Amino acid sequence: MKVSILMNGYNCQKYVKEAIDSVIAQTYENWELVFINNCSTDQTLEIVESYDNEKIKCISTSENIPLGAAREVGLKYCDGDYVCFLDTDDLWLSNKLEKQLEMFKKDIDLKMVYTGVYFINGSGKCIGKYTPSAGGDIFRRQLVRYEINQQSVMIRNDFDFSFDQNKKYSVDYCLFMSICAKYKVGVLESKLVKYRMHDSNLSHSVNELEWIEQKDTLDNVFQNNLDLEHMYPKEYQLAYARVFYYKARYLMSVNEASNARVELKKYYKTNLFYCSLYLLSLFPVSLWSFLHKKIRRFS
């Protein structure tokens, strides 16, 4: 069985060699790496092309394109029986592919498998970890609290799936939620990925498109699977509560506290977290920003 690994890169010379080396170090050797160079202007292309390895395909785009479009371009070159994803600043443990393929072999109905994750800083030091719970209703779990790390995913390449080329910030969420809603998904509690945390993702940077794209994803999932809302009424509410929390967070970041308060009030009765956020929104934005960071770990 051949595994295709899709890696998209733009100006990633600092870490890309480490990422590629973690692929080459895999104990499972029947793989191909499809690298999409998205018009890098640094030494990214030279580093990738320096590998004398026929398993590595490097394709350059003619112009810099959004992440969803870049991932979709890469999928066209992935002809393996399975498809994985690795960003240029993240790493795999050496047995990542082997462990996931073992799980697929045991259950032919599985369409996707994801794993636990180590969080590392810029120098590679472990600063945290996450262990997902195996078993249970995977789709229900994602509605309550989305936990799928893109670097940890492996998909069986025997059904139609694609990235939304219009998405810029929630590309992976869109694809993985649609798969969880329709197919059987497996979880490995083993931590087989090292996800690098930078200042940008540590600070939870806010973008208006984040909530818009996630709401669009949920709308599509529930509209295309009409029974799901009735099967998961509580989880449905929690999923949308999170979306409108993201909207409120964006509004707070652009000093629209009154509008943020309106959004938070829609779901403040959902649970203690959203109630706390609504109460915080009644105070000055500076206090919201400070205390918000303290309570986010309970979300």
Shape: globular
Secondary-structure class: alpha/beta
The Cα radius of gyration reads: 20 Å
Please give the number of β-strands: 9
What is the count of helical runs?
13
Q: Give the uncertain stretches in residue-range form.
A: none
Encode the helix/strand succession as letters. Answer: EHEHEHEEHEEHEHEHHHHHHH
Percent range of helical residues: 40-55%
**Cα separation of the termini:** 39 Å
Strand content: 15-25%
State the major sheet: 9 strands, mixed
**Average residue pLDDT:** 92
List the main descriptive attributes of the protein structure presented here.
single chain; 299 residues; alpha/beta; nine-stranded mixed beta sheet; 13 helices
Summarize this, please?
The chain is an alpha/beta fold and 299 residues long.
Structure description:
The chain is an alpha/beta fold and 299 residues long. Helices cover 43% and strands 19% of the residues. Strands 1, 2, 3, 4, 5, 6, 7, 8 and 9 form a nine-stranded mixed beta sheet that branches. Strand 2 (31-37), helix 2 (44-49) and strand 3 (56-60) form a beta-alpha-beta unit. The longest helix is centred in the C-terminal third of the chain and has 21 residues, at 233-253. The chain is globular, with a radius of gyration of 20 Å. The two termini are 39 Å apart.
